[in-house]
Design a protein that fits this description.
Layout: E1 3-6, E2 16-22, E3 29-30, E4 35-40, E5 45-49, E6 54-59, E7 66-68, E8 72-77, H1 84-87, H2 93-97, H3 103-107, E9 123-126, E10 136-142, E11 149-150, E12 155-160, E13 165-169, E14 174-179, E15 186-188, E16 192-197, H4 204-209, H5 212-217, H6 219-225, E17 232-233, E18 244-246, E19 249-251, H7 255-264, H8 282-286, H9 296-302, H10 317-332, E20 335-343, H11 345-354, H12 364-378, E21 384-387, E22 390-393, E23 399-401, E24 403-405, E25 408-410, E26 413-414, H13 422-437, E27 451-455, E28 474-488, E29 491-505, H14 511-526
Parallel strand pairs: 9-17, 23-27, 27-28
Antiparallel strand pairs: 1-8, 2-4, 2-7, 3-6, 4-5, 6-8, 9-16, 10-12, 10-15, 11-14, 12-13, 14-16, 18-19, 20-29, 21-22, 23-26, 24-25, 28-29
Amino acid sequence: MAIIVNMPRLSDTMEEGTVASWLKKVGDKIEEGDILAEIETDKATMEFESFNEGTLLHIGVQEGETTMVDKLLAIIGNEGEDISALLNPTTALEEAVEPIENPVEEAAAVEPGTTGTIPEGVIVVTMPRLSDTMEEGTVASWLKQVGDVIEEGDILAEIETDKATMEFESFNEGTLLYVGLLEGDSAKVDDLLAIIGPAGTDVSAVAANFSAAAATVTVEAAKEAAPVIKEVIQMEAAPDAVPVSNTTGRLHISPLARKMADDKGISLNELVGSGENGRIIKRDVENFTPAAVASPAISAKFIPNGQEDFEEIKNSQMRKTIAKRLGESKFTAPHYYLNVEFDMDNAMAFRSQYNTIPDTKISFNDIIVKASALALREHPQVNSQWFADRMKLNNHVHVGVAVAVEDGLVVPVVRFANEQSLPQIGAAVRDFAGRARNKKLTPQEMDGSTFTVSNLGMFGIESFTSIINQPNSAILSVGAIVEKPVVKNGQIVVGNTIKLTLACDHRTVDGATGAQFLQTLKGYIENPVTMLV
């Protein structure tokens, strides 16, 4: 028996989907659980698996094409089965369903002697698929009882899925005539959940003879070919409630009402909900008039006057490259972070004394670059680089120094930093920084780093984390030197400390390795004279 597969609702806000790729082609055998296609939604591209088995007889949406939720996506059935009636819904209903037995007739079958159709105005509500992996749902609670009048936007029940408990909203009006599940009961997706229709309508026969499998196969064909048979609708779940600031308090809004308000340009702050628990529903938008807005004195409190303004700046090639490389690094390299705080009293005294040498000027950043280079020689794993098929342990030390420029960030490289003196490192970094701001650096001067130092201490930043400059395995983030109370020899005294954060790629640098590197670095920074030995 052929089964129509419709475009699924793969997110709570999805209204249409695009077929990114088909993983099966017409004629392929389909097993339950096979991935049919990749569907691009408003949130992500997701795999769509089959809940049926058979042969893929028809593809209704080609790769790259888009269609609305619940529209024909594909047809699965027996090999060689005639599906022409399903592809031509204007054909008489009897002809359209002959090859697959009459599912609508099964769904709407009644006692002998009756009309054989679903009564006028009656709508069958089935258990919805509220998540892409949901196979059955449980009624956590009914918020309406048989006999209650249902308005569009009212919450009928709370349905527990395999992922969460979600509110289940009505997009129809009428009287709740029948409830197919008690609170705590479970049912498969598309099984009978409830029936809504005109008050007093006898729906016992519809409930007794409802067939979930039949009802989902030829809904579209039945709508076109047999208008006398009313549509069997699987209602949609309300997405997560959207809080709305309003003069009456914190409200919720139905998806339909929100869309109508957007289409009409009505601010949600101006709407007052009349639905369940103050929920804004369709009729609230339809009945809205400017006169219904709160008094100007009250409105002014919540709706300040002003004019939205912005300017668009075209992304430079540098900004595009930074975005691409840092995005690749952050989402491919498993980052972890090690935080330390070093005593800087000796380093400050060392720098002051060193700068008394004529024509000599070194910075704290120069000390950190030199100390890092020496520590890297002792810990080559931190000086490594990750590639898809290998790991490179570098014996040379090329330290990249991050420099902020107008369009973003560049990283010129101090080559063989462990072999250079502090004044040489200082001169190289100053030269790089000046030419970087004038866009005079060459590509060769920004290529080949094995480790990176990023310093925001001069901006007063005490601590931060950085994204690894791939293919390097680590980057050191340097904060500001802070004067603070510290404990020395059991006494609280005024001291100077600096916080550093080492970001490591866990594929190449284990936690203990990173910690050992920082211990070595601590020795050099807290006793900088050892760097001269």
